[in-house]
Amino acid sequence: MKNFVLIIIAVLLYSPVEAQEKYAFFNAQLGIESYQLNTPHNLPGFNPANLFSIGASSSYQLGNKLLGLEFSYANGDTYAEATNRQVIAFSNTIFGGYLLHNGKRLKVIPSVGLAWQQIQTIYSSTNDSYNLQNAQLQLNHAIRLILKQQNNMFIGIKAGYKFGFCRSDWKDKITRQEADFNGGYNSFHLQLLVGGILDLKKR
After folding, report:
1. Domains in the chain, please, with CATH?
2. Cα angle at 81 between 77 and 87, to 5 degrees?
3. Considering the entire predicted model, what is its pTM?
4. How many C-beta neighbours within 10 Å does residue 122 have?
5. What residue stretch is flagged as signal peptide (predicted)?
6. Alpha-carbon distance 68 to 57, whole Å?
7. 101 - beta bridge partners?
8. DSSP bridge pairs for 157
9. Which helix (H) or strand (E) holds 2?
10. Is pLDDT at 42 greater than 60 in this prediction?
């Protein structure tokens, strides 16, 4: 991961910087994340797991390149056949992006990043309960559409897909034993963005 971060920074800083645009972006974000989760021990199925998500992001633009950090928290409950399932997910992402379109008002920014995610699923029924968790490294692909407003504010949308390529086993949170459970490694997300832009060349 250290080498990946150094490569992103090197690409961002490559080429003369004096004539390039320099901006900082800050935003809050909310939306949905959708997971496919298998069900342990023949409990009722709940797929997909659609979670409400909130988070925040900050990024630095130099010319047409972008480097940023993002935090996201998601939570959701589902009920079926006297069984409840709650899913909780935290993720932190470092990402690099490129301004595919850099208009005065509209910006289109595809990006790719590394995310560290922790996910927990809690099943409870009249007969049994399970509290399972997993941590994994993911590739976080996304595209942002940003529309600049007055007073350097902006609104936008972000759609993306997280792909878990470094998978660890699910474990029971209480006993720390490996669980007969898998899934939840990949997820789709769609979020609304609201934030502000700082022109760093004017400061």
Report:
1. 23-89+97-134+143-202 (2.40.160.20)
2. 20
3. 0.81
4. 16
5. 1-19
6. 7
7. 108
8. 145, 192
9. helix 2-13
10. no
